[in-house]
Amino acid sequence: MKNLIKLSIAMAMLICSGLIQAQEKTITGTVTDPSGIPLPGTNILVKNTNNGVQTDFDGNYAIEANTGDILIFSYVGFETQEVTVTGSVINLILKDNVEGLDQVVLIGYGSSSKKEITTSVSSIRAGEIADINTPSVQSLMTSKVTGVQITQLSGRVESGIKVRIRGISTVGASQEPLYVLDGVPLINDDESINNSPINPLIGLNPNDIDSIDFLKDASAAAIYGARGTNGVIIITTKKGKTEKTKVTLNTASGWSFATNKREYLDAEQYVDFYTEAALNSGLSLGEIENQFDQLSLGRDWRNNEVDTDWQDLALVEGITQDIDLSASGGSEKITYFVSTSYNKTEGIILGNELDRYTLRGKVDADITEKSKVGVNINISKVTIDRLSNDNAFISPLQSIGQSPLTPALLEDGTANVDGNSTLFQNFLGQEQTGRFVTDIWRTTANIYGDFYINDYLRLKSEIGYDSNNQNAERFSGSLTEFASAGGVGTVSNAITERYILTNYLTYKRTLGDTVDFSATLGGSFEETNRKSQFTIGQGFPSDDLQTLDNAVLITNGGSNKTKYNFLSYFARSRFSIAEKYLFNLSIRRDGSSRFGQDSQFGWFPAASAAWIVSNERFLNNSYFLSNLKLRGSWGITGNAEIGDFASKDLYGVTTYNERLGVSPIQLGDNELRWEKTTQYDLGANFGLFNNTITGEFDYYNKTTNDLLFNQPLPGTSGFTSIVRNIGEIVNKGFEVSVNARIISKPSLTWNVSTLFTKNKNEVTDLPSGDIIDGVNIIRKGETISSFYLYEYAGVDPSNGDALFYTNTINTDGSLDKTTTNNVSKASKIVTGNPFPEYQIGFTNTLKVNDFDFQFTFQGEFGASIFDQAGKFTSGNGKFFDNQTIDQLDRWQNPGDITDVPQARLNQENGQADSTRYLDEADFIRLRNITLGYTINPIFSKRFFLEKVRFYFSGINLLTITDYDGYDPESTADFNGNSGVRTGTSFYSAPPAKTYTLGINIEF
């Protein structure tokens, strides 16, 4: 019996061993491309193992695997495929993937595969930006596509962002592109009450973005007609897929610091400097010491009792917290995506904070086999806390001009607001007894129905809605500049709503075996309503009672309502012949209530064509030139972003001799018409070495005429200006992008992307002659808003006087370069401009097993910034403002060679608007960097988690520049009352340098 048992066990072990051996096998086969050419070097990997091989020169391979294992086949330029092992021979044909040529690109009222695009359209996909943690949607775009310049105005958390596509194409109208979110053209108005713009996309959660498409040339943008002059940015949010429910959790915490701090005089240096400046100006030692006594508020400045670093008080450490939760999935009939997020950012400027809440839902459902409906809703609330804008004397950054002798706080901890001690209002008083909070509620929604009338004809109807509700409450109490009024409170509310109704038919058909034809015909109606109101009160019994119902007196108030609308019709036809010759024609007719009665409608046609040369027989199997598409386009786009009633004669209420009446307040132009931009584009898409290297090249020429221009009028007219169509601007340039897949293996991938953009802007027609606006000028033959300044010539070594070149015109037409110490004898010249001529970008993406590493460098060259604040803080002691450290190199004795004039208190010596305060703003910046580690799915799935990734990311970690100011990108907010203009800095805060740790989880 025992022998029988032993025999049974032995047989069972032998059978199991046989079964195991039966499962183990050598898998062989050949890998080819669609034309049958072998693909040597193809990577084959057994999924979730390190077992991998490559095909030989003839495309053959052999690998050990078990039945049921999954083999992953990957090769540069082809789609990665997974095959389950069922037999011992697997021959595979890999499908072409020419830089995502089958990738869907949105082109406005439709979509297209990338290979069929005949225009200049650049795209960013979720996969390219998924691992980048950024504070805003615009940050995702920076240095990702050519021809697009993105600049954050300052380091405030809510700071406005400038986006320029292929240069500046207008003067008096909006320079911002049109943003289209899930089919809804977004409201992009600045509703700030203190001339401090707020980012219009601040309510969007970057993690919700699925794709961003940039329509850059006129043929691509002309389908949006009146809004396309500045380019179109189509933002598409994520949607559900036909799969089981997937839940994603992203959470991160970050720490932020100013990218740069400047050096200023400390208390001892300040005393030495201003003692010298006072004596140079004829003041006695006693007089200047008496001034020091006042500034120090009785403290012992002689023994350095006070040495206030106002910059450290203004620029603080910031903290960022992010959490994002989403769920998606669906069946064959219905898919869904829902997400919610929260972001809290404590900025690098004292008193500047942001809280953002978002909720998004998107559902798509098949009603029948030929009809589909969907709804997409996004709700966000953003709360912004701040003290002031860049241009106010209460700005934290302007506090750097306070004397280091002045104590910031009194002994009891309250802000020092003594008028004799502080040079201007101490911002800490606003921090302690003030409040400036803005709440922004934003709702965007889109409901659509998609109906297939037959196999060729499709009708799509969309209803879009966008609502921006911005409420600002500001209170300034007993330690602010309004203390004498008992405090002042302001409440402002602005609500803007936009309704869009769009219907269009799309016809698609294949004619014969070679011609694909499609056509789109549709129309849209859009109405935008805005209403606002404000109330101001003063006289509050306590700093703790900050609402207007506690004000003793309501001093001012008002309300306003306005609306405008667009009525549009559009058509587009597209042809593809033999997948080689592509044609695209479009036309749009827009009508706007903003223009003159006889000029409300405008036509915006466009045409483009492309030749896919690589599909011709002579290149069909080329390894070196594996893809080549040549394209050209032409089109006209428009701009209508001006005041709602710019063409009208307007009247306002007035009083005369205690009688109420009306009087003219605006001179209208009934012939005011569309500003139009005509653009030509020649481009090429190419792929080399079986698409290991791919890229694009574009040359463009944009001419904008009939500029919507606020033309100055002589005072005798009774008006200061009138909006008219005058002038012409030309932008010319080229763009180059190159992408390379250097290594593509299952355990190692390395991709590199480089971008280069050149743009030249020129005013080519200006019938009204030069227009001077502060330090800027608009002049024919020059870049728009060029700087118009006296030319600084340094310092007279004999007496320390500031010198300027006279720049009078000689008889031969040259400029006289003799110098003078009297600026009134000098002439201003055009010197430098605010816009970069060259832009570069470099992105590196590396994945090694479970580690991923990515960084992006950005560079801009050719722009300059004028430092308006330099006249005060680098002004060799004309005022008592603290000075930058370079003032230690001032002229002091005859024979000194320096660029800093002699310090002279209360005297002009080089503070005029000159090139002394103009600085080149060239820079190279490490825009972002990310290092991540993903836990092997074999381990994470044991805990029912599909993916677990830890990461570190950094933003603005390194800036290489010779710019002397805070930052080569930070410029002042526009404020017509302060003299601040384009390309100027006025105590503008630097951007934040942020370090972030985070985790991504999918389950």
Automatic annotation (TrEMBL):
Domain TonB-dependent receptor-like beta-barrel: where? 422-762
Q: Which domain of life is it from?
A: Bacteria
Pfam families found in the cross-reference section: CarbopepD_reg_2, Plug, TonB_dep_Rec_b-barrel
Compartments annotated for it: namely: Cell outer membrane
Q: What is its main location?
A: membrane
Cellular compartments per GO CC: cell outer membrane
Q: Where is the TonB-dependent receptor plug domain?
A: 114-232
Q: What membrane topology does the UniProt entry give? A: Multi-pass membrane protein
Q: Which Gene3D superfamilies match?
A: Carboxypeptidase-like, regulatory domain (2.60.40.1120), TonB-dependent receptor, beta-barrel domain (2.40.170.20), TonB-dependent receptor, plug domain (2.170.130.10)
Q: Does the keyword DNA repair apply?
A: no
Q: Which UniProt keywords apply?
A: Cell outer membrane, Membrane, Signal, TonB box, Transmembrane, Transmembrane beta strand, Transport
**From which residue to which does the signal peptide run?**
1-22
What family, per the record? Belongs to the TonB-dependent receptor family.
Q: What is this protein called?
A: TonB-linked outer membrane protein, SusC/RagA family
